[in-house]
Amino acid sequence: MIRSHLLTALCLSLALATPGLAQETPEVADELVLQAEGGEPATFDLEALKAMPVTEFETSTVWTDGVIRFTGVALADLLEDADAEGTVIRAMARDGYAVEIPVTDAVPGGPIVAYQMDGEPLDIDMMGPYWIIYPYDSDEAYKAKEFEDRSIWQLKSLTLTD
After folding, report:
1. What is the mean pLDDT of residues 43-62?
2. Cβ-based neighbours of 127, under 8 Å, separated by 6 or more
3. What pTM was computed for the model?
4. Burial of 35 (0-12, 13-18, 19+ CB in 10 A)
5. Which of 127, 122, 113, 129 is CA-nearest to residue 27?
6. In contact, 73 and 32? CB cutoff 8 Å
7. Are 72 and 55 in contact (CB under 8 A)?
8. pLDDT tens digit string along 87-137?
9. Rounded Cα–Cα distance for residues 57 and 47 (Å)
10. The pLDDT of residue 26
11. C-beta atoms surrounding 2 within 10 Å
12. CB of 99 within 8 A of CB of 150?
């Protein structure tokens, strides 16, 4: 009986303590790190990204219903601002998922690092705080699966390599 109560108390203590350990502070959660392999990292928070030239487009996606307006920073502008060079971008999500994006994708009218969807911030528990989105409806080529695969959400870092 005492053993059962002790086990229940231990489980309850762990359950109550765990959410506090798992939560990230907003200052850390909304940072995007960009670096060239072997170089010094550049860190962008939401305010820094919003201070850059804004790119918006409307497009449908396989993950959302209907046409959505995405707002963010053009991937080309972000790479230019950070003066980062390489041929491949390794994009990593908060959960460790990673994709490789050719730097040649970072063109005007191409993908953005979105921070808003229909004027609302991207929810950190869903697709946010940042999501690489291609303007799928602007060009049939962007509807290819390879571009869907490169559309990483909960983006945490971008590393340029050769």
Report:
1. 95
2. 63, 117, 153, 154
3. 0.80
4. middle
5. 129
6. no
7. yes
8. 999 999 999 999 999 999 999 999 999 999 999 999 888 899 999 999 999
9. 20
10. 38
11. 6
12. yes
